[in-house]
Amino acid sequence: MLSTFLIALREGLEASLIVGILVAYLVKTGRRSLLPALWAGVGSALAASLALGGFLSFTSAELSSRGEEFFAGTTSFLAVGLVTWMVFWMQRTARGLRDELHGKIDTALIGGPFALAVTAFIATSREGLETALFIYTNFKTTSATSSASIGLIIGLAVSITLGVLIYQRSVKLNLSKFFTTTGIALIVVAAGVLSYAIHEYQELGWLPGPDAFIWNITSWMSPDSVIASLLAGSIGFDTTTSWLQFIVWAAYLGLVLGAYLKPAKKVVTTR
Fold this sequence. Notes:
The chain has helices at residues 2-28, 35-62, 65-93, 97-109, 113-140, 145-167, 175-204, 226-235, 243-260, and strands at 213-216, 240-242. Strands 1-2 form a two-stranded antiparallel sheet. By secondary structure, the chain is mainly alpha-helical. It contains nine helices and two strands; from the N terminus they run αααααααβαβα. Pfam families: FTR1.
């Protein structure tokens, strides 16, 4: 529940802020008549995200046991790569995102309402498609799908509410700290998804050491227990974890968190 809440909150607020920036710019520049085209693009992005989530779930359910292991493992690797890239992308571009979006709108307006709808679709679909893929792979790491679904719904509701309040200037949020903190949380969740991907490829026989466990605590903690499900969905903990899973999990956390939290280089100007 916690992991899906964090994913939905972070990605949902990113999308809400992007939509807020686009809407505010059109209103500010006296182009309210183009808002329907903007919302059409946003709606299409939402539909595409839901379609991807449905496709992933349906495909996974229809595959054989071995095919499902390959599908789940491969999509988990893709999700980790995409989320890692997006976290660093947002860290680099957050400050100039508003000006970048304004420039894209000005360019799109040359082509009319359809071009604006396409621009809105591209600007918002990135977060939606990423969320669908990451949520799917995160669901695979936990058996408590009901609580994970509740976390997803609550996270989306809170993110949309915050987005509206920020647009209306009813609430002030330190977005830099928010995205830094949630970025760290997403990296931790991604490490767990990566560990799960390693496990699936070990089950396929494509990676070594599936039975070389660093720990096996199933005798006193059931994989389906509330605690095990909570830990699996948040930090990727598994009651049976191989050495390879643990090494890759720890290496990813150390390298990615180290790079993410590394202070930005100060540019020294000379006169």
